Amino acid sequence: MRDPVELAAAYLEVPSVTGDEAALARLVGEHLDAAGLRVEVVAGCVVARNHGGDSSATLLVGHLDTVPGELPVAVDELVLRGRGAVDMKAGLAVAVALACSEPSVPVTVVAYPGEEGPITGNGLAHLVAERPELLAGARGVLLEPTGGFLELGCQGVVRATLRLRGRRAHVARAWMGRNAIDRVGEALGTLRALERREPQIGPVRYREAIEVVGVRGGVAWNVVPDLVEIDVSYRFAPDLDAARARQRLEEAVRPVMDDGDDLEVAEAVPGAVSDLGRFGALRSGAFGVRAKLGWTDVAQLVAAGVPAVNFGPGDPELAHTDQEMVEVAEVRHVAQALWRWLHA
Amino acid sequence: MRDPVELAAAYLEVPSVTGDEAALARLVGEHLDAAGLRVEVVAGCVVARNHGGDSSATLLVGHLDTVPGELPVAVDELVLRGRGAVDMKAGLAVAVALACSEPSVPVTVVAYPGEEGPITGNGLAHLVAERPELLAGARGVLLEPTGGFLELGCQGVVRATLRLRGRRAHVARAWMGRNAIDRVGEALGTLRALERREPQIGPVRYREAIEVVGVRGGVAWNVVPDLVEIDVSYRFAPDLDAARARQRLEEAVRPVMDDGDDLEVAEAVPGAVSDLGRFGALRSGAFGVRAKLGWTDVAQLVAAGVPAVNFGPGDPELAHTDQEMVEVAEVRHVAQALWRWLHA
Q1: Mean per-residue pLDDT, A157-178
Q2: Looking at the domain covering A4-153+272-342, what would its CATH class be?
Q3: Does A173 contact chain B (CB < 8 Å)?
Q4: B305 contact partners, CB below 8 Å, separation of at least 6
Q5: Please, which of A17, A191, A342, B109 could form a disulfide with B48 given CB 3.0 to 4.6 Å?
Q6: Nearest-CA distance from A317 to chain B in Å?
Q7: B181, B209, B213 ranked by CB distance to A221: nearest
Q8: Do A213 and B215 touch (CB under 8 A)?
Q9: What percent of chain A clears pLDDT 90, i.e. is strictly above it?
Q10: Is A116 a catalytic residue?
Q11: B160 touching A (Cβ < 8 Å)
C-alpha cells in the first residue's frame, strides 16, 4: 500500500486555511491522477474515482482546510506535527493512499474545502447540491480524527437566542423599570432542569449537551436594562430530528417567556445515525466503538443517502489546538484497518 | 429682577454638547460681566462674583453642557423647549438672572463644563482642584432640575464588575468544563437578597438601588464559556461613606465567589447630606422637600466644605429625553423663591 505517512507529511507542508485550499487541492488531485483515478474538481472539491459510477462504491471523505494558525511541521519515525496533523491531513492522506493502492473494489475519494467555516461555505454541501451523482455509493467513511475509534453517527445542533425584555429606567429610580437581566436566573434554572438525554442507539450511547454559550445585556451604568440575550446550544442525539429538537427547546423555555420575549433559532441541523451493518468488519480493526457527540459531515453523507461513519487517525481533543500531532503508528493502523475492511 | 426666561431662551439657541461649551460660556460670561460682576474663567468654568472673597457668599451653581441630540428651540408664553431646557439651561439662567439683579448679599455664580461626561472631564472637579478659594461660601444651590422641589443631598455610587470564572470545553463534551454563565443565577439571587436600605436622614428618606446593569459572557457557539462579567450599580444612601458601601457590596457577593473570581470596583463616589439649617427659608418656596436619589455635584460642593442642596426648574424625568421642556411659570417661581431666600 502507498504510505499514508509520506503523503501526510507532504500535505502538512502545504498550508490550507479555510478559503485558501487551492494549492493543497492541486497536490491531492495530482497524487490521485498519477495513480490512474478519474479526477474531477467541482466547487473546489477534488473527486477521484476508480470506477465509472458504481453505486456499490465506498466513499472516503475528508476536508482540505484547517483552522488558522501556522505551526512548525516536524516529522520523525514516531509522530507528525503541524497545523492539520490531526484535523485532518493525516486522515486525508489515508484516503488518498488507499485509493492510490489499486484497491480491487470501487472507491471514490472526496476531498473538500470549507469545513472549518460556516456551513454556507462547506464544499461537501455544494457538491451534494451540484453533482449528487458523484456521491453515489453504498457506504462512506469520514476520516475526521476519532483516535482510531469507530465513531457512529453524529449529534445534531440547535443554536438559538432567547431574548428576555424588561423596561428601561434610571437606576436611581429602578422601581419604575423592570430589569431584564434579573430574569436570567430563572431562564438558566429552567435550562438546567431540562433533561440531557442519553439514548442508546444500536451499540452506542449518545449524550446530549445543553449549554448557555453566551449572555449579553446592558445599556449603560445608570440604566436599568430592558433586554438580555441568552445564547443556547443544544447538541441533540440523532433519535430526534431537527424539528423535534427545536420544539423541545422551545417548550422548555416557554414558561419563562412573557409577551415581547422571543426565541430565535439561528440554526437547527440534524444529526445522523450510522447503520452499523455496513461497517461490521471495520469494527474489529478499530480501537472501540462509540457515539460521535459533535456534529460532523457524516450527517450530510447520511442525508445524501450514503450510510457513513467517522473513522480516522488523531486524538480529536488535539484538534484546533497548537499541540496538533498524530502518531505514525496510528495513521498506519487506520489505513490497514480500512484496507482490510474494503476487501473483506 | 432680570428675567430668567429671556436668558434661558437665549441659552437654548447656543448648542453646548459636552466638550463644546465655549460659545455658551462666553455668552454667560458676557451677561455677568455686563451686570458688573467680576468674571474669571478657570478650567472652562465661568466664575462670577459680586464680592472680593466673602466666606459668607451663596454659591449658585450649574453646568453649561447638555447631552447630545439637537432639538428645535421653541419658546412661547407657557413653555421653553429645546435640548437642555430641563438639564439645565433654565436653571443656569435662573442663577445668572439672580446674580445680574444686584442682590444685596454676596453671590458667586459657577457655570461649569463637562458634567454630562465622565468625572475626569467634570469642570467643577477641576475648579475645586485648581482654585478652591473661588468656591468659598456659606451655602450653595445646585440648580439641576428638581421640578421646584427642594432635593436634599444625593446618593453615592459604587460601580463594580463581578467576574466569575469557569473552565472552557467543547460543548459536545461540556462535562469536561465548567460553564461560567451557569453561575450567574446564584450571583443574581445573592444581589437580589441584599437589602435596599431606606434610611431617614433629617426630614427625608433615601432609597437605595442595587441593579445589575450589564452582563457579558461567551466565547463561541461551540465553546463552554470560562468567564462571565456582571456589572453592578449600587446607589447608596449618604449615611454610608464610599468605603463602607463598597465593603457592603463586597461582603454580599463573597459567598458566590471562588478562587480566580474577582470583584473590580471601577468607581466608588460618596453621596452627601444637606444641612437643612442653611436652607430653611427656601423650604417654604419649594413645592416640597425630598431626598435626591441620583448622584449630583452637590456631593462635590459638600466635600469642598459648602453645605448645598439641589433646587431648580424642570421635571428631572424629562432630562436627556427628546421631550425636554420647562414651564415658564416654574422658572420664574424658582427664581423668586431663591431671591426671597437670598434676602431673608
Answers
A1: 91
A2: alpha beta
A3: yes
A4: none
A5: B109
A6: 9
A7: B213
A8: no
A9: 89
A10: no
A11: no
Say which amino acid occupies B231.
D
Q: Distance between CA atoms of B211 and B157, rounded to whole angstroms?
A: 11
pLDDT for position A3: 96
In the predicted model, what is the mean pLDDT of residues A106-132?
95
Question: A46: which residues sit within 8 A by CB, 6+ positions away?
Answer: A25, A28, A29, A32, A39, A40, A64, A109, A110, A111, A112
Summarised one tens digit per residue, pLDDT across range B262-318 is 999 999 999 999 988 889 889 999 999 999 999 999 999 999 999 999 999 999 989
Neighbouring residues of A64: CB distance < 8 A, sequence distance ≥ 6: A16, A21, A24, A25, A28, A46, A92, A111, A112, A113, A123
Mean pLDDT along residues A91-111: 98
What region does B314 belong to: left with phi over 0, alpha with psi -120 to 50, or beta?
Answer: left
Residues of chain B found within 8 Å of residue A188, distances taken between Cβ atoms: 181-182, 184-185
Instruction: Say what the pLDDT of residue B88 is.
Output: 97
Mutate to test the interface with A, among B144, B151, B171 (most CBs of A within 10 A): B171
pLDDT at B175: 85
Nearest CA in chain A to B316: A170
Identify from A164, A171, A219 which residue to disrupt to test chain B contact, counting B C-beta atoms within 10 A and taking the largest count. A171
- The pLDDT of residue B213: 95
Specify the pLDDT at position B170: 83
Is the Cβ–Cβ distance between A200 and A193 less than 8 Å? no
| Average pLDDT, rounded, for chain A | 96
Is residue A315 annotated as a catalytic residue, yes or no?
no
Mean pLDDT, rounded, for A162-189: 93
Cβ of residue B285 closer than 8 Å to a chain A Cβ: no
Instruction: Tell me the three state secondary structure of residue B35.
Output: coil
Residues of chain A in contact with residue B163, where contact means CB-CB under 8 angstroms, are none
Strand B58-63 relative to strand A308-310: parallel, antiparallel, unpaired? unpaired
**Cβ atoms of A338 and A58 closer than 8 Å:** no
Q: How far apart are CA A70 and CA A215, in angstroms?
A: 31
Average pLDDT over residues B123-146: 97
Question: pLDDT-based confidence at B328, cuts 50/70/90?
Answer: very high
Catalytic residue among A21, A115, A116, A330: A115
Give residue limits of the domains in chain B: 4-153+272-342, 156-269
Residue of A nearest to B226 (CA): A213
DSSP A180: G
**Looking up cell 433615601, which residue turns up?**
B206
Distance from CA of B105 to the nearest CA of A (A): 36
pLDDT tens by residue, B51-95: 999 999 999 999 999 999 999 999 999 999 999 999 999 999 999
At A36, list the grid cell. Answer: 490512474
Task: Read off the pLDDT of residues B161-202 as tens digits, 9 standing for 90 and up.
Answer: 999 999 988 888 888 899 999 999 999 999 999 999 999 999
- CATH architecture assigned to A156-269: 2-Layer Sandwich (3.30)
**Smallest Cα distance from A187 to chain B, Å:** 9
Which grid cell is A318? 488535539
Of A172, A213, A220, the CB nearest to B209: A172
ipTM above 0.85, yes or no: no
Chain B interface includes A209 (CB < 8 A): yes
- In the sheet that A139-142 helps form, which strands lie side by side, from edge to edge? A38-42, A45-49, A107-112, A58-63, A139-142, A308-310, A150-152, A289-291
Of A188, A189, A213, which has the smallest distance from its Cβ to B221's Cβ?
A: A213
